[in-house]
Specification:
Length: 149
């Protein structure tokens, strides 16, 4: 069994390399080859701040909906970078949830928001929630549009 300090050091090394080169594919490959979800979950909850940031990033890229409960409390962290990484991770998980039709609908809604077509965003998000059920990301996108109108 690998010692947690060694795992943490490897994770931090991969994280710092990602920060310097921005190579997401290399970071994902490094994490996927060397880590199971449980060590990342432990580091996310009890590691030092660098380990927690790296674990949050990794979980956002490779995690599942079940990780939402672990990432949510990080939005209240005193560390701003950790809060931002957790927010991005939660959004990445939300975008991957649901059926293909649901994800395509969400992509269209996000594009409408990005293009400042807020009225259409509200209509599409409301229709999507009626068709697919309420989703946190549909609600979020619709609330952004309401805020802008």
């Amino acid at each position: 069994m690998n010692h947690p300090v060694i795992k943490s050091s490897l994770l931090i090394k991969l994280y710092h390399r990602y920060l310097s080169d921005g190579d997401t594919a290399h970071f994902i490959a490094g994490i996927a080859l060397r880590f199971m979800p449980s060590p990342l979950e432990r580091l996310l909850l009890s590691g030092n701040i660098q380990s927690r940031r790296a674990a949050a990033l990794a979980i956002g890229l490779l995690g599942q909906q079940s990780h939402v409960e672990l990432l949510g409390p990080l939005l209240r962290s005193a560390d701003r970078r950790l809060r931002l990484i957790a927010d991005d991770a939660l959004r990445a998980l939300a975008v991957r949830e649901g059926t293909l039709d649901m994800r395509q609908s969400l992509e269209q809604i996000v594009r409408c928001n990005e293009c400042a077509n807020f009225s259409k965003t509200i209509i599409l998000a409301t229709a999507a929630m009626q068709e697919f059920g309420v989703s946190t990301e549909f609600l979020h996108q619709r609330s952004l549009a309401y805020f802008q109108t």
